[in-house]
Amino acid sequence: MNHRPLFSGVDIPRKYLLSEYQYKKWNNAAVKSACQLSPDSILIYGNIGVWLTDSSFSAFTDFNNGFSKGIDNRKIFKLHFTKNGYLYAGTLFGLFYFDFNSGEWQPVEIPVHDQRVVDLMEKNDSLFILTRSYLISTPDQPKYLSFKKYIFPPPENYENKEGLFKTLWVIHSGEIAGFAGKLFVDFIGIVFTFLTLTGLIYWLFPKWIRKRKRNERGIHSIKKINRFSLKWHNKIGVWVVVFLVFTSLTGMFLRPPLLIAIADARVGKIPFTILDSPNPWYDKLRRIIFDEEKDKLLIGTNEGIYLADTELKNPLKPVYPQPPISVMGINVFENLGNSNYLVGSFNGLFLWNPDKRILFDVNNPMVDMKINTSGPPLSENMTAGFIDMGNRKYLFDFNRGVESLQGLPKFPEMPDKIIKQSPMSLWNLALEFHTGRYYSFLFGKLYILFIPLFGLTMLLILITGFWLWWKIYRRSHRK
């Protein structure tokens, strides 16, 4: 979990997974959007990588040559075809441009530590690259790229605080202390496994030993293993019990329903950690729009949507009213012109005009919208992507798949060749188990309670285990 790039080349065929993880009707965030190269050449992209199709979406050709092995290396956040005729891709692991001569994607090293590119845009003759922390510009010349890095000014009334969710996230993963912190959390994970196994041995072996005694069978080796397990179960458990409790407690609040309680909470930045960054937007940037009509930048972040001047000299201004945005991030952020924007997340898809204070729920047009700045992490309408082809508009819901917003023509069925070439990454599968979502086939919607109940059980085991050890320890030392 802590080393996604290391395992990015390892995939699991979806045919071996539960039905919820099978692609049907382009669900499971298969498609994020589309990029038009010519009237009859369109690239669709998302978690399936990049595929070339025609204007009627009748045939699909693999367009992933050049990306490294593994579906994670084909996770595309944004494709951008510039006015100069150059094609760029912002991916989970960096920036790429497409060499039309060789027919392959070529990697581009950008001057930041986290190479993840979440959005691309064009202004004048420059390409602008948005990462989770910085805005980077370069002349639109793939062979002669020259980068300039920008830090957005802080927002108005900046308090230099961090979201509690983000704080708990980096503590839980160990990222708060950088790579060394991640390795320490890896060690804690190994300790959890060791304590589980030795605890099971201590619970099962005494019964086994008594049974073998009754049958007059040898017990020496079994008793030896049992003593070894108990000794090191206690020693290691006592040494790291505080870290085990902290890991369990922080993990409980990273998933609903406890997540809802902390989603909007803000706390001071912990000094001397990665959170204590001079960049007020460290790991907070998600999407960007250059509004030529206003000559302004619209910045989508994990804390809301802000307006910035193109010179980046003044504090960023929050835009009110704002559509509900899931803490999971913005998936659709489109400028429709005349101050109209389309904003989509796992909280739904909204037509938004802040100037006229208009907020329209595309999925529920008859519902009177209340103005919100945030919402629950998930809703019934989990917008994963959107394709706008003028007179044809398609919404991609994470669960339901593709839906036409204008009736016919319907989007075609997902071809078998795309399904076969779009497995699930090992990292994503591990995440499904780690968050408890994989167990929904057993518990249904109640799976959401798995993490808090498992966390409470783990805390009870750790606290009572330490208490029992302490009683025995004190008793032995009194003697």
- Please outline the major beta sheet: 4 strands, antiparallel
Given this structure, which CATH class of the largest domain is correct? Mainly Beta
Question: What's the number of extended β-strand segments?
Answer: 27
Total number of helices: 8
CATH superfamily of the largest domain: YVTN repeat-like/Quinoprotein amine dehydrogenase
Features:
single chain, 479 residues, alpha+beta, Methylamine Dehydrogenase, Chain H, 2 domains, 8 helices, 28% strand
Textual characterization of the structure:
The structure is a single chain. The protein is built from eight helices and 27 strands. With 479 residues, the protein is α+β, with helices and mostly antiparallel strands. It folds into two domains: 269 residues, YVTN repeat-like/Quinoprotein amine dehydrogenase (Methylamine Dehydrogenase, Chain H), CATH 2.130.10.10; 153 residues, no CATH class. The protein is globular. The strands form eight sheets. A four-stranded antiparallel β-sheet has the order 2-3-4-5, with no helix packed on it. Strands 6-7-8-9 form a four-stranded antiparallel β-sheet, with no helix packed on it. Strands 10-11-12-13 form a four-stranded antiparallel β-sheet, with no helix packed on it. The longest helix has 37 residues. Helix 1 runs antiparallel to helix 3, helix 2 runs antiparallel to helix 3 and helix 3 crosses helix 8. A hairpin with a 5-residue loop joins strand 6 and strand 7. The two termini are 46 Å apart.
